[in-house]
Amino acid sequence: MGQPKTLTQASFDVLVREHLVPVFKRYGFKKSALNWYIRRDEQPGGWGIINLQKSAFGNRNHITFTFNLAVMHDREPEHASKRRSHACAEQQTRIGRLHPSNLDTWWDLKEPKPGGKELPDQVLEIAEEVCPLLERKAIPWVLTRLAGPPVVG
Q1: Consecutive H or E run containing 141
Q2: What is the value of pTM for the model shown?
């Protein structure tokens, strides 16, 4: 059996379950692990993907993450029936590129130091920043490109 979850890991789960999942559900995305998929069958058919990527440099007490956005149109008939990784998409970006700063943006959730923000406050602060960014920028980016013509290249 694995180790019990740390407070940081449990707080991350709360962020995903209570804040992110409802946003994606409103737009018809389905969750699988830390990926949200939406399928478009009308021509041009394809998949839209929003991937929550945890940093490889994080740990159980400090979770750093960002969002990768991707669209892949069906190039072959078998593409319609299986979801693929955002990494092989013809169109992709990171959420920070849609932010006014146009910077690669990562969020941190970590065990507080004495006098620091408690984890529930960190979760709310992150949710208040991320959820509107998902709804106003990331999800429209995916849906607009999914409805448009495939990128040739």
Answers
A1: helix 139-147
A2: 0.89
